[in-house]
Amino acid sequence: MTDLTDKVAIVTGGTRGIGLATVTALAEAGATVVLTGRDEAVAKEAAAGVPGGRVTGVALDVTDSAAVSSTIRAVAKEHGRLDVVVANAGVLEGALVGMMKDDLVERMLSTNVAGTLYTVQAAARAMMRKKTGSIVLLASIAGEQGSAGQSAYAASKAGVTAIAKSTAKELGRYGIRVNAVAPGVIDTAMTAAMGEEAIAANVEQTPLGRLGSPEDVAKAIRFLAGDEAAFVTGQVLGVDGGLVL
């Protein structure tokens, strides 16, 4: 297992699903982890539930660039370093292209694209001083291949892929790696809203014959975060069981 002893990590959107599984995986590998969520009480409760005692929870809305900057800067200052940032915070809403409302498009882009950019920007500033660090973004198979009824979401996740590839080129000179994972259909609360028929159809199209688990994605993120991936940057790692939408 990847050794993250003495590393300091931040996971945005870390109160449930893939985010919480990632927090747990990083903590199990020895990292000190700060998880964020929109609600402070929920974030603190989630952190308290992770074994090991090296996890804290703070409130953060990633669409607020000033808050993102100050939160990441405060964590780096408190611990004297910042080694890993996982930009997991995101939203998923579906709508046929002819029925998309303006507020849905705004939420998708402000959270998934702008929020990710703000997080990468603040992480890079904190990591440049040490000339080392790993940033992992949450893309999606939908952003890679498209998905009917999810045009806004797919567009936002394609944007995340572009952010990973572009910032990897910019930040490599500072020893900072930027990668992304692109999950397929993962067994989370978001997926449950798809309905049983849609879930069954996706399982049928997945060569491995099951939904992914949050832990499947978290282990891939943990790999990219650690020194075992020291020569890996600008990559998008599919965690999808071979699914082709």
From TrEMBL:
| NCBIfam families noted in UniProt | PRK07231.1
Q: Which Pfam families match?
A: adh_short_C2 (PF13561)
Q: Name one GO biological process term.
A: fatty acid biosynthetic process
* UniProt family annotation: Belongs to the short-chain dehydrogenases/reductases (SDR) family.
**Domain Ketoreductase: from-to ranges:** 7-184
> Which molecular function term from Gene Ontology is one that the record holds?
quinone binding
Q: What is this protein called?
A: 3-oxoacyl-[acyl-carrier protein] reductase
UniProt key word DNA damage: no
Q: Name the InterPro entries for this protein.
A: KR_dom, NAD(P)-bd_dom_sf, Sc_DH/Rdtase_CS, SDR_fam
Q: Which domain of life is it from?
A: Bacteria
- Show the SUPFAM superfamilies listed in the entry: NAD(P)-binding Rossmann-fold domains
Q: Which UniProt keywords apply?
A: Oxidoreductase
> What is the native source organism of this protein?
Umezawaea tangerina
